[in-house]
Specification:
6 helices, alpha+beta, about 30% helix, about 180 residues, globular, Aminopeptidase, five-stranded antiparallel beta sheet, three-stranded antiparallel beta sheet
Amino acid sequence: MHVETPRLVIRPWTHDEAERLLDIQSRLEVVTWLGDGEPVLMKDLDEAHERIERYHSRSANPPLGFWAVEVRATADAPARVAGSALLLTLPNADHGEVEIGWHLHPDSWGRGYATEAAVAVVQHGFDGGLPEILALTHTDNEPSKAVCRRLGMEDLGIIEKYYEGESCLFRMTPERWSRRPESG
């Protein structure tokens, strides 16, 4: 996958970016919101390289994948990876349900990058034939819930299915996506 938006490029992670991945994934304020159970911090560059290989293998069956979100270079700053975006089959999925996700370095929070990347990833998923895309957030992850709302996702409430404990569940269908004001 290689998708460009006005400010971002969503594309595979490279091994040259292992230090940035380590910086992102070794921060408690980032990994607190990933998956379930106790947060697990990335420990070293070897683990970052292994994770990049895993991201590549998880991207082998489009439209699914795990990608870097790169902020384009400007006159004032070089290009840099802000974080990751993903479309992956949910754990404990009964029918291959697919989840969208994002996580960014704190230096990239509050700039609209998560929403901008998510719009591109949702479009990529629907262009690839997905019948729906789900988003799950921790019940107290207000920033991610706000991204889901900005995307126009349907709030399906709190569930206890895909991950341990309660999660907020949001859903987008191609029909709902095409009716968004931004899609016209």
